[in-house]
Design a protein that fits this description.
Largest sheet: 17 strands, mixed
Bound molecules: the ligand N[C@@H](CCC[C@H](N)C(=O)O)C(=O)O
CATH superfamily of the largest domain: Diaminopimelate Epimerase, Chain A, domain 1
CATH topology of the largest domain: Diaminopimelate Epimerase, Chain A, domain 1
Structural class: alpha+beta
Number of helices: 4
Number of domains: 2
Mean pLDDT: 98
């Protein structure tokens, strides 16, 4: 069987989107997700996105990382699917229901409420998630936030100089994080601007991470370091993140369709 896909990205964090909302597709397992996301022998991307019908929202978005693992949330993909859908919609994810709204050249997304309890991150044992008493070779005292998926955030002098390629995988796989974790290193430029690099769980270094931008901005706001609306500059470009008085995170930024294509399902199954 031939299957259609759309190749999209949000600030260079790229996706294969498969749309099974009106035409069902065979089940996707971890091995198939890995085969499709492979940049040498597959189509290649950071995340594979599968759209399906939903009983509780306008549609459901499932997210598979580059390593094939299925995860709960993806901020950049939320904007991409808003663009693809072409209208405001509620989207069921395993991290919660989010609200997407296409905008000129992108989308704005209500990402829901952040969670700070150590059990909700999740961490292996209890501690203060605003200033965690832990460290890894010079990266220390991070904060932890769950914005649908788990994040740890380090404030550093110079995010570009942080050794994320070596410490990222170490921290991602530390037993402190039973579900593993996305690792953010951030520099506060001023009260309205943060620079950020992200080591994504199940992927590695990416050009941008929407949930990482949300988690980092909210942690910086929780620490009183920035205003309740900030620009977060990632290697791939800028996102605007706001945390409202009623505890909801709004992310606004670009999304792009790169091209469409099709592939033979059995070649990857
Ligand atoms: N690229 C994403 C996050 C994708 C999932 C993440 N790697 C995880 O494992 O939680 C984003 O834009 O938020």
């Amino acid at each position: 069987m031939r299957a259609d896909f759309t190749k999209m990205h949000g600030l260079g964090n790229d996706f294969i989107v498969l749309d099974a909302r009106t035409r069902s597709l065979p089940a996707i397992d971890q091995a198939m997700a890995r085969a499709l996301t492979d940049r040498h022998t597959g189509i290649g991307c950071d995340q594979l996105i599968l759209l399906e019908p939903s009983d509780t929202a306008d549609f459901r978005m499932r997210i598979f990382n580059h390593d094939g693992g299925e995860v709960e949330a993806c901020g950049n993909a939320s904007r991409a699917v808003a663009l693809l859908h072409g209208a405001a919609a509620s989207v069921q994810t395993s991290g919660g229901v989010i609200q997407v709204e296409p905008r000129a050249q992108g989308a704005s997304v209500d990402m829901g409420e952040p969670r700070f309890d150590w059990e909700a991150i999740p961490l292996a044992y209890g501690m203060d998630t605003a200033t965690m008493p832990v460290g890894w070779d010079g990266l220390d005292k991070p904060g932890a936030v769950n914005v649908g998926n788990p994040h740890v955030v380090f404030f550093v002098e110079d995010a570009d100089a942080a050794p994320l390629d070596t410490l990222g995988p170490e921290i991602e796989n530390d037993p402190l994080f039973p579900e593993r974790v996305n690792v953010n290193v951030a520099t506060i430029v001023n009260r309205e601007h943060i620079r950020l690099r992200v080591w994504e769980r199940g992927v590695g270094l990416t050009r941008a991470c929407g949930t990482g931008a949300c988690a980092t901005a909210v942690h910086a706001m929780r620490c009183g370091l920035v205003e309740r609306e900030v620009t977060v500059t990632l290697p791939g470009g800028d996102l605007t993140i706001a945390w409202s008085e009623d505890n909801r995170i709004r992310m606004t930024g670009p999304a792009t369709e790169a091209y469409r294509g099709s592939f033979e399902w059995d070649d990857f199954a």
